[in-house]
Design goal:
single chain; 220 residues; mainly alpha; 11 helices
C-alpha cells in the first residue's frame, strides 16, 4: 500500500462511515462527496497493485532469508540423519550381541532417541533399509533382535516396517527373528500382520508363526 497504512485507512473509513450513517444531518452534495471518498479508500485498502520498490525489495529480501534458512535447516537435518545412520550400522557390525543382555547398539538407540526422536527414527529406518538392501544376513538378524529389546513405543511404525520386511525375507532365520520380535512386543495389531503373511514353506517357521498368532489373539 503506497499512501496509508491499514490502520490509518480503517480509522478514516470508520469516521466516514459514521458520518454517512448520520446522513440526516448533511445535505445531498456533502453526502455524495463523502460517499465517493469512502469507496475510494475502500478500493485503496484492497489495492492489489505492486508495492513500492523499497517495500518490494524488503519483502523479497525477507523471503530470500527465510528460504536460505530453511534450506540450511534441511541440509543440516539430512547430514545429521546420514551421520547417525552410519553410526548405527558401524556399531551393530562390531556389536557382540548376546540375547538377554543389553547391547551397545541398544544403548545407542536409546541415546539417539533421547536426543531427538524424529532424527533417531529416520536414521534407524535408513540403516535398516541399507542392511536389508545389501542382504547382510548376520547384521539383519542382529538388528531385528536388538530392536525387539526396545520398547515398541520408541519405534512405532518403524517396528511394523521391520517385521513385515523381515518376514518377507528368504532366509528362515531372518523370518524367525521377525516373529520373535512380534512375540516380544505383544502388540495386538500385529496378529493381523501375521494372519495376512503368506504361509511359510519352512514347517517350523509356520508352526512358530501360528503359535504367536494364538498367543496374540488372546489380548485382542
Amino acid at each position: 500500500m503506497s499512501e496509508f497504512s491499514n490502520s490509518s485507512l480503517m480509522k478514516s473509513m470508520g469516521d466516514l462511515f459514521s458520518k454517512l450513517s448520520n446522513s440526516s444531518y448533511y445535505n445531498a452534495k456533502f453526502l455524495e462527496k463523502e460517499n465517493d471518498r469512502f469507496y475510494q479508500q475502500l478500493d485503496l485498502l484492497f489495492d492489489e497493485r505492486p508495492q513500492s520498490s523499497s517495500t518490494s525489495r524488503s519483502i523479497v529480501s525477507s523471503l530470500e532469508k527465510n528460504s536460505n534458512y530453511l534450506h540450511l535447516q534441511n541440509v543440516d537435518l539430512e547430514a545429521s540423519i546420514s551421520k547417525k545412520a552410519q553410526r548405527i550400522k558401524e556399531t551393530i557390525r562390531y556389536d557382540d550381541y548376546i540375547p538377554g543382555e543389553i547391547s551397545k547398539t541398544q544403548l545407542l538407540f536409546e541415546k539417539l532417541y533421547s536426543e531427538n526422536v524424529m532424527i533417531f527414527r529416520e536414521s534407524y529406518l535408513r540403516s535398516w533399509l541399507d542392511l536389508y538392501r545389501v542382504n547382510d544376513i548376520e547384521n539383519i538378524i542382529k538388528f531385528i533382535s536388538i530392536s525387539s529389546d526396545l520398547e515398541y513405543e520408541l519405534l512405532q511404525e518403524r517396528a511394523d516396517t521391520l517385521i513385515i520386511a523381515g518376514y518377507s525375507h528368504t532366509n528362515p532365520l531372518v523370518m524367525e527373528a521377525s516373529i520373535r520380535a512380534i512375540e516380544k512386543w505383544q502388540q495386538p495389531q500385529h496378529v493381523y500382520y501375521l494372519q495376512n503373511m503368506r504361509p511359510s514353506e519352512v514347517e517350523w517357521i509356520e508352526e512358530y508363526k501360528c503359535e504367536v498368532i494364538e498367543d496374540l489373539a488372546i489380548i485382542i
